[in-house]
Design a protein that fits this description.
This protein is an all-alpha fold. 79% of the residues lie in helices and 0% in strands. The model has no long low-confidence stretch (mean pLDDT 95).
Amino acid sequence: MTPLQRVDRAWQSLVQALEALQPLAQLAARAYLAQVFFQSGLIKLRDWDSTLSLFTDYYQVPLLPPTLAAYLGAGGELVLPVLLLLGLGGRFAALGLSVVNLMAALSLPEIGEGALLQHIFWGCLLVGLSLWGPGRWSLERWWPRPAMK
């Protein structure tokens, strides 16, 4: 076996090992993102008067009245993370949380560099889950699909 063939064989072994870890990585990303967004939704619910005040006086959500934006933001942060964690409608949940994430980053009049980087990181994870789905370790993987005619 030539050195090049040995390198190729080692590379193929590494690729197979990494592919075997994909479901774990997708589950870890789903769990992390679900926790981040669900906690944010709970914070909004715990002090709803402050939430409404923030959406009215501080956040600058484009195109939506502040009260509607508060309801949509809190609702999205409470429902979509559960779907994402379970991997049920995973792409839908990831796309929905991408909108929530983008609106959160855009609606802050001033956002620190650290906070912006955090939103970018969350956005990258959400884009990956949107493109490749929630993975093999998800409920939608085992959910029966209707037959196509």
